[in-house]
Design goal:
Blueprint: H1 7-29
Organism: Indicator maculatus
Keywords: ATP synthesis, CF(0), Hydrogen ion transport, Ion transport, Membrane, Mitochondrion, Transmembrane, Transmembrane helix, Transport
Family: Belongs to the ATPase protein 8 family.
Amino acid sequence: MPQLNPNPWFLIMLLSWLSFSFLIQPKLLSFTSTNLPFNKTSTTIKTSPWTWPWT
C-alpha cells in the first residue's frame, strides 16, 4: 500500500504550508478591507409595555 508511505508527501505538505505561511499569507493580509468598521452610535428605542387583556 504505497499511500501509507509518508516519505514523498510529507515534504510536499511541509513545503506547501511553509510557503503559505511565509509568502502568501502576509500578502493577503496586507490588503485593506473595502468596508472599514466604524463606531455606530447606538440608538435606544423607547418601548411601551404591552397591556394584556386577561391580567
